[in-house]
Amino acid sequence: MTRSAIPDEYLEGYAGILADVCATGRRLTRNELESLRARGERAAEAGLGLRLLVRRHLSAARELSPALSPAGADRVLAAVEQAVDAFAEGYERSQKLAVRQEEAARREFIDDLLYGRSDLGRLAERAERFGLLLSRAHAVAVAQGATPVDDTHPATRQVESALVARFGERRILLTTKDGRLVCIAPGDQDDVLAFFAKQAHAATDGGRAALGRAHAGAGGVVHSYEEALNALDLADRLELEEPVLRSADLLVYPVLTRDRQAMADLVHNALGPLQAARGGAQPLLDTLTAYFDSGCIAAEAARRLRLSVRALTYRLERIHKLTGTNPADPVHRYTLQTAVIGARLLGWPGNEV
């Protein structure tokens, strides 16, 4: 923008103020300073560059300098310093307000998007402002660390910098919600979410990430987000060790718990007799969990439990005797393994079912 492109209204009366200061040696009045701040705010709202505006103020002072004595020049420089400082203060105040308003609008949009609120047509219009085209399918990834994060957290900035460096101007939205990192990307760009999960795992010192499936429309974003949250919840309840989870790989668990009462009945009938064991049901339930997680390999299960193979075998025999179901029998195994999964999901035996 050239000098002539800066409207004269932003320097109206400025030369007169400098001339009066030069003649009297006074400082700028409170009203003059407030007027300069107000002009700075208007200039920022108009989108004018601060460097060019400051240059115009300096140029106006320079036009007076040939006719000034050394004392007058010092007075003008002091006045210019006051004036530019006030003008810049107003300019920065306007910019900070605009940033706060933008942050508030962005946060409101994120809340509406992830909770499925607001009119879908209006939501789609607002989404374009933040780089999303809701006419396309999108998938959501959520990462959770040991400590909550927000938009200003170092982990958030680290992941955002990595995404920008890797994918540039792709239509990706990174944000935070309820202390977790959230990444929304087009559904056909699985590499984005996989990269996000890897970076979030590192930035949160070993946190876990979950990826929802791709779904179409604004409602699809909510659906994918909820899938990712449910995957994180399942990982906690089932004590899964994987750092990255895909909801598509965990679909069997919502199916198993869809009829909670039926699952509770299975747990009670299949595993309830274990409560009669010395020490309660938990040690034997842990034995079954390790046995099934190790692919029903006794040596590996014993290693995980820090037991001898003989001790593990004794426990399996005890389970068979109490429940009437043999963990080593393929016919019985499915029932027991399903009941063990249900117990972990329902928090049994800590919670009554």
From TrEMBL:
Domain PucR C-terminal helix-turn-helix intervals: 284-340
InterPro entries for the chain: CdaR-like_regulators, CdaR_GGDEF, PucR_C-HTH_dom, PucR_C-HTH_sf
Domain CdaR GGDEF-like, chain residue ranges per copy: 116-234
Gene3D superfamilies listed in its UniProt record: PucR C-terminal helix-turn-helix domain (1.10.10.2840)
Regions annotated as coiled coil: none
Family: Belongs to the CdaR family.
Protein name (database record): Regulator
Lineage: Bacteria, Bacillati, Actinomycetota, Actinomycetes, Kitasatosporales
